[in-house]
């Protein structure tokens, strides 16, 4: 079993920063990637960023490139999403998800990010 626990969300003014964390516990997989998604009210869940646990470059949605940075701490089994220069359109519930080849995503419970203008 896999557990993912997000933290770090909150309310911030436009132009501000937040850092989200996603701690993974339970079973681990050698070929897996941690991803961040977000879902704004009335919109579909969308991909934000991903990183592979074993190494390799990160991937970002165009809307967050240059502002968000995904990183990992393998010793802590934790992935971070540093979000800078936040915009009101970044307001959403942010979810981390563990992607394992051949399996559905494991999801965290989500953390709310609200950016005021």
Account of the protein in words:
Helix content is 0%, strand content 54%. By secondary structure, the chain is an all-beta fold. Strands 2, 4, 5, 6, 9, 10 and 11 form a seven-stranded mixed β-sheet that branches. The mean pLDDT is 94. β7 and β8 (78-83) form a beta hairpin.
The gist of it:
The chain is an all-beta fold. It contains no helices and 11 strands. Strands 2, 4, 5, 6, 9, 10 and 11 form a 7-stranded mixed beta sheet that branches.
Write the SSE topology.
Blueprint: E1 2-7, E2 10-13, E3 18-26, E4 33-39, E5 46-52, E6 59-60, E7 68-73, E8 78-83, E9 92-99, E10 106-107, E11 111-116
Parallel strand pairs: 2-11
Antiparallel strand pairs: 1-3, 3-8, 4-5, 4-9, 5-6, 7-8, 9-10, 9-11
Following the backbone from N to C, one meets helices and strands in this order, namely: EEEEEEEEEEE
Biggest sheet features:
7 strands, mixed
Shape: globular
Structural classification: mainly beta
Rg, nearest Å: 14 Å
What fraction of the residues are assigned to beta strands by DSSP?
Answer: over 45%
Counting DSSP H or I runs of 4 or more residues, the number of helices is 0
Average pLDDT level: 94
Low-confidence stretches: none
Helix content: under 10%
State the end-to-end distance.
40 Å
Structure summary, number of beta strands: 11
């Amino acid at each position: 079993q896999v557990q993912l626990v997000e933290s770090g969300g909150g309310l911030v003014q436009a132009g501000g920063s937040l850092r989200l964390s996603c701690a993974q516990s339970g079973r681990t997989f050698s070929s897996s990637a941690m991803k961040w998604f977000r879902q704004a009210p009335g919109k579909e869940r969308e991909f934000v960023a991903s990183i592979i646990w074993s190494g390799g470059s990160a991937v970002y949605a165009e809307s967050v490139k240059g502002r968000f940075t995904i990183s990992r701490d393998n010793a802590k089994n934790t992935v971070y999403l540093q979000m800078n220069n936040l915009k009101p359109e970044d307001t959403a519930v942010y979810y981390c998800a563990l992607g394992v080849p051949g399996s559905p995503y494991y999801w965290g419970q989500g953390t709310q990010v609200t950016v005021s203008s």
